[in-house]
From TrEMBL:
Entry superkingdom: Bacteria
Protein name, per record: Putative signaling protein
Residues covered by the EAL domain: 24-281
Residues shown, of full length: 293 to 579 of 579
Amino acid sequence: RAKQAGSNQSHFYSDQLHQSLLERAILERDLRSALVNNEFRVYFQAMVNAKDGSLGGLEALIRWEHPRMGLLFPGSFLGLAEELGLMCEIDQWVLHTACHQLQDWRTRYPLTDLKFGVSVNLSAMQLQDEDLLDSLKRTIDLSGLPAGCIELEITENVLISNPHKIASLLSAIAGMGVRLALDDFGTGFSSFEHLKLFPVHILKIDRSFVSGVGQGETSERLLAAMIHFARTLGLTVVAEGIENAAQADFCLLHGCHLLQGYYYSRPVPASDFESAFIAKFAATCVN
Ligand code: C2E
Ligand code: MG
Ligand code: MG
Ligand code: MG
């Protein structure tokens, strides 16, 4: 009996393996055609000014509207996209779409004192792309958006492979007026050296630290110290993953400039973002 159960089990595992290989093959095939089939979407999540809750920025986040599987999150396909060498094209598309969307809002609404920009995530692969600087320039020119309205988010882990080469690339990008944010701060191979070497303007404190509010004195002190640290360096501090009022209050109290999280809004399609944030913001500007 035991033997039988054992063989059933291995059968089960190989079925499962076969299933997942099959799924991967299908996903791979679909991913290769997703861009031309226009299946990617850019969702936007608000960043609000900690002081008054007004709109202070927005982050572009990719989604994949799969024809059969429905809406897929980046965690389920970006890894594969990277393996397949599709990341640069995808990120370029996101940047293009996000810039055009913001410029469209700027022209359709009387946002004369619209100071914020759109943040776009940059993958490690893009930083290896020789064409990045030129394609960035082209995208910005084409969109008509001032370079100062564009922020690129990078994680610390992308900086460690070839720090000096990447530092000069990022300096060139910053020289164009584009602002740079260090994303998921505190989770990667954090090094104080990074902040000396790279022209970073914004520090985004990872939500794993923000969730420390109410979780004990050590967690709270750590979060407070991170905020103070970033402020001391003259950086704009963003707290990621704000899910409740206690977290928002804590981050405001300790000097975060911008707050981002489900407490304010989930990432939503452009049309929803427009009615929930842009139209309201425009109305307050007119007054
Ligand atoms: P990220 O850049 O750190 O983006 C923040 C992630 O946290 C987003 O997940 C967002 O939906 C989620 N989030 C925001 N507020 C909350 C909250 O209050 N609670 C919780 N639990 N989560 C919150 P998402 O959209 O699934 O993206 C995951 C990651 O995928 C991003 O992390 C980013 O690293 C990457 N990513 C997303 N879009 C792109 C893209 O266009 N290009 C590249 N290269 N990477 C992207
Ligand atoms: Mg990000
Ligand atoms: Mg992040
Ligand atoms: Mg993250």
